[in-house]
Structure formats: C-alpha cells, structure tokens
Amino acid sequence: MHLIVHTDGGARGNPGPAGIGVVIVDKAKGEVLEEHSVYLGKTTNNQAEYKAAILALERAVALGAQSVELIADSELLIKQARGEYKVKNADLAKRFLELKNLETQLGGRVQYRHIVRQHNKRADFLANKAMDEGRN
Hints:
The protein has helices at residues 45-63, 75-81, 90-105, 121-135, and strands spanning 2-11, 16-26, 31-43, 67-72, 110-114. It has 136 residues and is an alpha/beta fold. The protein has a single domain, classed as Ribonuclease H-like superfamily/Ribonuclease H (Nucleotidyltransferase, domain 5), CATH 3.30.420. A 5-stranded mixed β-sheet has the order 3-2-1-4-5, with helices on both faces. Helix 1 packs parallel to helix 3. It is globular, with a radius of gyration of 14 Å.
C-alpha cells in the first residue's frame, strides 16, 4: 500500500494551545483511510508540525505502508526531514529522531513535499478543530 499523508500542526501563540491534523490517503484508490485531529496542550508551532508528521508515520507503519509521501506546509519540517536544514533546537532534535526512526521502520521509503497552506486545507482544518475543541 502506498500512502499520501497531509499533515499540519499549529499553535495559537508560540508556545500556546496547539493541535494537529493528519489526513491519510490510499494513493492507488484516492480514498481517505483515516483523519486525525488531536489537541496537544501548550507547545510551539514547530513541535506541533513535527508531532503531526510523527503521528502520520506511526499510522503508516501500523497500516503496513510500502511507501509514504508526506505533504506539509511547514518549510522547516520538510527541509529538516530532507536534510537540507540542520536541526539546531534540542527539543526539535528529539522529534526529528522520532521521525527518522519511523522512516527507518518504513524502509526509508518516505518522500517529503512542501506545499502552500492553501493546498493543505483539510489538515489545516483538522488542526484548527483540535485547537478549538481543546479550549472548551
């Protein structure tokens, strides 16, 4: 099974109340297999972006994916995951290692693609939904 996953994480304030959104699609069928909207509590935007990507890859491992295309609107996340940017923040370095461990579990068959926010609407909606519900 080949998956396309859209991820988004956000925080209202930095740090602030945060949430993530993940949409997992079967690439061959074009159908949505899972959607996740998770409130994280108080954290940074970058932590939330990483946690969304980690959840996506955890689910890909659980689903037995053969390959994953991870799509996000966080340039920092994507460029760090590709090795184009160094991970300088110690807390993000922990998340980066989690991400790379999951990538290894997927046989290294993970591609990372950056898109603009307008093309990541469903994951953005789910992240905002989590933040809205977390405040209540």
